[in-house]
Amino acid sequence: MPTEVESLLKADGSRALALAALVLVGLTGCSLRPPDVDPKVVRVGEVAQQSQQSHQSADEAASEPASAENSDGADDSSRETKPSFAEQREQVSRPAQLDEPEALGRALAAFYRMRSRAFMAPVASHVQGTVNLGGSGGDRETRRCPDGGVFHLEWQGPDGERSGSRELLYQFDQCRGHFGDGPMLSLNGYYRRDFRPLVGREQVIESFDVHGYQGEGSQRQPIALRGEQRVLRPAEGGVVRSTERMEMVLGETYTALRGVRDEITPEEGEGDSDFASFNTRFVTTIEGRLFSSELGGWVDIATGTGLVEQQAPCSASGVVAISAERNGEVRFGPHTGTHHRVALELESGEVVRYERCSSFGEAFGFGR
Description:
This protein is α+β, with helices and mostly antiparallel strands.
């Protein structure tokens, strides 16, 4: 059995050997690392360079637009994908055939849709309702869109002007969302609204140049709209809307308006009410040319008889004449000659009738 003194001597000897090994490593640069491990050498200069690159990467990430937050990487391609209007115009360079009465309903539905600014109508209402309309010239605001991306608003009137004429520019940067009851939209481009009060009346000029995508998944398709529309509100009441040109591409479908004017005029009707407004009716007249690849060409549209209390898809009465390779009419109310609400009649005598306005609207997708 070893004595207590011998145990202490052995322990002191082990400590001495360990200390000697550490000293030897420090003096000779030898490594106690196993021979099969290849250590990575990092120089001081490289560390500084890597640190600088990390800071640069962080700065670039911070400067990325908010649209980069979109998780759907496919939407990034919409910046570069803009449908060609020139290619689509070739489809509609001749008068449409109008080979069946239903073509008249399709023409009127497309006309009303474009006259109402198509898919941009609910988008315009959304952006106007979410910004601070108390801004002035030079002011700029940014708002997030419902499902990603942003839109910017810039007041372009004189500085400090908060009333009278004002011009607003809305710029879309991968702006995504369901607007109104419509499908998912992802938009780039701009929408400009110029309000001008005139003597005894006011005028609004709206212009568009937007593109992107509509729908999701397998229903996703490119979309674009551009053009200008003027809306004049006379002091005596009513509305005059002029669309010199507006064109839209949705997937493979091209639709456009040219030289369109529609006017809503108040007229005093027959009635025994003490309130003049209760005896007033509104009559709509329209004229212009519609181009539609779905119809295979263009048609001229005009009211043969003014549309009384017109509200798409129907009117209380009136006649819309549609002319192209063949001619036809859309008749409402008593002008159908029967108890039906709507009649689509070609000059050849072919006719399709609808007893209810809702049936007519559903058949041709009014409002979509």
